[in-house]
Design goal:
8-stranded parallel beta barrel, 11 strands, globular, 482 residues, binds S-adenosylmethionine, alpha/beta
């Protein structure tokens, strides 16, 4: 197959395996001053770190230098995104898969899996629980790869999800943004899901090491084609989808290689399209149903280092930590992250069939954090974070290079704060118990106070609009945003 974006002269893709291996081989403990300089450069946001800089961050093991990295990572996150954490939930719609990835419970040779594809009616029921009972506004729609769940199925599902409106205590709730995690697709197929209203298109490369990739993805399966997957986001841009998400599955191979792979990928998208990834994911391999594949162990300390280095290396990108991780691990990395899921169920149909053992058996792997959204919101509030249900960006055309410029200049953090306040107010009105509501009133008041004190970032007009929208939301109006 010919790849439009390959380097035609020497038929190489953009991941230079030899260079990455050589950088990793020649690592020495860097001086703390040198690391400080690299972190300062990143704090300017607009000045991209080189792969060599990133490999120096990776080489750090001195505890004081590591602490410096963690402090900078938290500072950068706050500068770009303020103290808000966006929450979402996954909607696993089908576990049919033609691939046979050794590490995944959905793989075709797992005879123990009970296969299921949700019908549109079932997707509607799942959405009713997610939007109407839990109070989510943002989903990631997940399917395996199968002719039964291709682009048409995904497009129909998106339309179905967006059509669901549920009456709540004080207003009405619906899902306002659906991101999609699905197999790499052709430009034609991507156009179809773009027209159905996709938010972000997410594809994880799993491993950027081509040799390891070959061992994990058996030949004669579509996923065996490393380059077709590597250029999935390029095709998405060509189809007009300018919010794309990258990721690597940590624990398949050497984590240091994957960090350099992810940063290389981000730099490639910046170079070719002028827009980097909207988000970056770093799932850790979990034990999957009927899989003997155990991979390489990644300690919690290494995991924290990975997330901090990604924050510093791709400062404008959203970073997503998921319920694969245990609460105590999430607490350690949340200062560097922008998004997490909550109230998550990954069995097919598991939100509406929540008491069914079968739905549980249809899940891809085991979860580390099974707390409710309300419990998660309470914990975030204790830690000083405001939970945001904001989905305004793409509806105000703040996507692609527009959002990149806003993020890099620090201007987006203003909108993040205002929309966090408004969407959090909606959730408190519609879904919160009295206990959590009382606890969060103080937090939300403090956020409003912060806005009023900060005349550099917030004009009198913005402040006035905030109060106007806020009061309207209290009276039952919904979906007001900046
Ligand atoms: N089939 C599509 C694909 O492979 O791109 C999308 C769905 S797949 C379920 C989504 C992601 O789940 C994969 O990209 C992979 O990174 C992750 N995954 C697979 N097995 C996993 C495991 N055992 N633990 C954690 N994540 C896993
Ligand atoms: Fe299928 Fe994706 Fe699982 Fe691989 S990771 S078996 S492609 S669902």
């Amino acid at each position: 197959m010919i790849y439009k974006y390959d380097d035609k002269n020497n038929m190489k893709d953009f991941v230079d395996r030899e260079k990455i291996l050589s950088l990793l081989k020649n690592q020495v403990e860097p001086d703390i001053e040198e690391i400080k300089e690299i972190c300062e450069k990143s704090l300017q946001i607009s000045d991209a770190l080189s792969i060599e800089d990133v490999s120096k961050l990776i080489a750090v093991s001195n505890p004081d230098t590591l602490e410096l990295i963690y402090n900078y990572a938290a500072k950068i996150k706050n500068k770009v995104y303020d103290n808000r954490i966006v929450v979402f939930a996954p909607l696993y719609a089908a576990n049919l898969c033609v691939n046979n990835c050794l590490y995944c419970g959905f793989r075709s040779e797992n005879r123990e899996a009970i296969r299921k594809v949700l019908s549109m009616d079932e997707i509607k029921k799942e959405t009713e629980v997610l939007a109407g009972e839990i109070g989510h506004k943002r989903l990631i729609f997940v399917v395996g790869e199968s002719p039964l769940t291709g682009a048409e199925y995904i497009a129909d599902s998106l339309k179905t999800i967006y059509s669901v409106k549920v009456k709540t205590r004080r207003g009405v709730s619906s899902i306002r943004r659906v991101n999609v995690n699905a197999a790499p697709m052709s430009v034609e197929d991507l156009k179809l899901i773009k027209n159905a209203g996709i938010g972000t298109y997410q594809v994880f490369q799993e491993t950027y090491d081509k040799e390891l990739y070959k061992k994990l993805h058996p030949p004669k399966t579509p996923k065996a084609d490393f380059n077709y997957r590597l250029y999935a986001h390029h095709r998405a841009f060509e189809a007009g989808i300018d919010d794309v998400a990258i990721g690597a599955l940590f624990g398949l191979g050497d984590w240091r290689f994957e960090v350099l792979g992810l940063v290389t990928h981000a730099r490639e998208l910046e170079k070719v399209f002028g827009i980097g990834p909207h988000t970056v994911s770093f799932p850790r391999l979990e034990k999957a149903c009927a899989s003997d594949y155990s991979g390489v162990s990644i300690s919690d300390d290494e995991f924290k280092k990975i997330v901090a280095i990604l924050r510093i290396s791709i400062p404008y990108a959203g970073l997503i930590v998921t319920c694969r991780e245990k609460p105590e691990v999430i607490r350690e990395v949340i200062p560097f992250c922008t998004q997490r899921d909550a109230s998550t169920r990954i069995g097919i149909g598991a939100y509406s069939e929540r008491y069914s053992k079968q739905a549980l058996e249809r899940q891809q792997f085991e979860l580390g954090d099974t707390r409710t959204l309300e419990e998660v919101i309470g914990e975030l509030a204790d830690l000083g974070y405001i939970t945001s249900f904001c989905t305004a960006g793409y509806r105000c055309n703040r996507t692609g290079d527009h959002i990149m410029k806003m993020l890099k200049s620090g201007r987006e953090s203003r909108f993040c704060k205002l929309n966090a306040i408004l969407t959090f107010r909606e959730w408190l009105e519609d879904f919160a118990s009295d206990e959590i509501k009382n606890k969060c009133e103080l937090l939300i008041e403090k956020e409003i106070e912060d806005v009023f004190k900060d005349s550099d970032r917030f004009s009198p007009k913005l402040k006035k609009m905030l109060i106007d929208y806020y009061e309207k939301i209290k009276k039952g109006e919904r979906d007001l945003y900046f």
